[in-house]
Hints:
This protein is an alpha+beta fold. It contains 25 helices and 36 strands. Adenosine-5'-triphosphate binds near residues 54, 64, 68, 190 and 217.
Amino acid sequence: MSSAPMVIKDDPTLMFTNAGMNQFKDIILGNQPAKFRRVTDSQKCLRVSGKHNDLEEVGHDTYHHTMFEMLGNWSFGDYFKKEAIEWAWEYLVTVLKINSELLYATIFEGSPEEKLERDYDAANIWAQFLPKERIINGNKHDNFWEMGETGPCGPCSEIHIDLRNETERAKIDGLSLVNQGHPQVIEIWNLVFMQYNRKADGSLESLPAKVIDTGMGFERLCMALQGKTSNYDTDVFQPIIKEIARIVETEYDENPQTDIAMRVIADHIRAIAFSITDGQLPSNAKAGYVIRRILRRAVRYGYTFLKQKHAFMYKLLPVLIDNMGDAYPELIAQKELIEKVIKEEEESFLHTLEMGIRLLDRTMVEAKSSGNQTINGKDAFTLYDTFGFPIDLTELILRENEMNVDLDEFNTEMQRQKERARNAASIETSDWVMLKDGTTEFVGYDYTEYETSILRYRQIKQKNQTLYQIVLDVTPFYAESGGQVGDVGVLVSEYETIEIIDTKKENNLPIHIVRKLPEYLKAPMMACVDTDKRATCAANHSVTHLLDQALREVLGKHVEQKGSLVTPGSLRFDFSHFQKVTDKEIRDIEHRVNARIRANIPLKEYRNIPIAEAKELGAIALFGEKYGDEVRVIQFDSSIEFCGGIHVPATGNIGMVKIIAESSVAAGIRRIEAFTGEKVENLLDTVQDTLINLKSLFNNAPDLSIVIRKCIEEKTELKKQVEGFIKEKQSILTQHLLDNVQEINGIKIIKFCGLMPPESIKNIAFRLHKEITKNLFFVAGSTDAGKPILMVMLSNNLVSDGMDAEKLVKEASKLIQGSGGGKPHFATAGGKYTDGLLMAVNKIIELANISKIRQVD
Ligand code: ATP
Ligand code: MG
């Protein structure tokens, strides 16, 4: 069996493959029959989240990786413990010729509270090969394997190896070092004997078909075979380590700190490159965020310990591909994309790092200035949360400055965030209630209605909402997968109609989600899909195939599908391409697709054909998708793709396609969004209505763009003219006002009431202020866009005498129902009541009480 993709797309409980068994979960759970009863494989795994998270160890130790290859053999109801143990021994000792003196086995010691006895079977089988003292009892934590909170489980038996040299082995007995975290006495192979099923109430029941699941770390095996004491010294990692050493100009194996950094980078580049090829780009949510964090961890180690201030990880790709491209050709095919994505991520994180360092500098200065040697934990948490600064980096920088951080406070903040995340994600799932045995038959490619009955159901609670999941005997409902959303519809019996609000897949089992359970659970029912939604969904799905084809024709063969979302309303298609798609290219793509729609090409569906035959047809497969030995192929003439989705019977049913948006989602990835059929019709209606309206505004001119351009030009010309007139009027008016100064008690009163834009009055006011340096009292009233405005300008000597333009304006603005403000020498006000303008102007003069002031003088 070939490796399944490392990125898991259709399982809500798991983001990445973390063990060989993941791809066989549906078989182990009994949702699918096993096609083969015996299997062997090598599976790419990633252990960076959830149950298996080795991230913090990676680089610091020499035998845990984020991404590694797990070798395994399986039995689905075929051989069991005896063969599994005997063959494991034969493989290690006889085939690979590993010194049997170095090997130890652990077995399950039993658990009284679970009423489980010691695994005597395994102990007896091992006793054929190993002396009694090298068969070690292990507790539930180490030697009892569970798939999750519920589900298949059973005892396991691990093989450990002592890789120390003879002198060391003579000094300390290896037996005392097994399972003690010694870097050279390590587990290499785990043999799991699944014989129980754990129920939601915690009890165990016997599993009808027993399963063997074994997993051996390829890198650790290499270390054993090549006589090394670190995975990084094997030929799996050495070429990468050497390339890092060359780039950063630092020797490996010289300084513990730089060695750790180099191991981190050598490890992480593999995890990141493989994730991207499997279709998981770094992003700020879910699986994408996990990948982003791995990448940032590597960049940070490079930055801090290897002095890499510029992007450098992407430069490791040629060596990685040289090393692993033969076994994983998907790396070669997507080299350009991987490089581009990594480089851009590195650059953006380095930028964030620098901003964080600046913030930390400021925080340190502030703390110091208030006599503190300790920065608070909240600030450290902000650095961690927003700038990706792990606490050890913050501490390192602080230490260099003889400062430290309040760790307790930091940990409290961290704990709080974890709780928030847990509460948001927590789902309570009850046990399945079984009504009938069996698995679901899917008939949705041929039917939208089918007679059925309920096999089992269960309750789920999430965010105060209670829903039910129903498994049917037969179903026409398509479960969300391959980017196409799940069908909705109803379950109808003689007694009631229940709405199905969504259909999802869990370990290959179609699950129908309802808000309310049928009252008569055992009644025969009809499962009816909402055919309107199904039809538009099918059109949107088929058109993604035609778009994919046209994109390759117009933009080039490098275009790879990188994600899609097909809903009844619209479709979204992400693909690799390195520039913006131009308007002309979009047109070209649309025209090609629409021509194929008009050609009404009939659907040709190949159901369950051997994968080799599909490849022969030239069908396009997706990177990062898991395909069985038999696949489904969808063909519309020369568009041929692997696909499990719902499609139109002929392209004519799509009606028409219109691309409504083109954008960038990440480095090297573009997105187009499109409408089909009725949605395009609606869109065209709106566009046409707008045009008709516009035309009627322009007297039904035959060419709108000509008249609108003319209109704009005329406006520009008029504006220029008006500005000229205003300037002219402004200087005439200024002169007129200067000629008509009214003097009372030595004060030069200038009063203006008339039409003039406020900007011009202001200009005039400042000109007067310049020309009449003493005793100027200028007051103006005008309107701006129909609203009254007031303005007062005073000479500085009057202000010194105690006059205040702002006070005057504020008081007078009541008469125009407005308000105002400004400075003592210049103030303005706006209002609503134009008829009060003249009164307001007079009021200002009256309020100034000019005769009185001068009399005092
Ligand atoms: P350990 O205790 O060393 O972390 P484990 O108990 O987590 O190992 P299993 O889950 O039993 O390991 O996985 C099966 C095998 O996969 C192990 O025996 C080991 O050879 C390998 N393995 C597990 N985790 C890693 C890892 N992070 N990096 C490399 N190999 C690993
Ligand atoms: Mg582990």
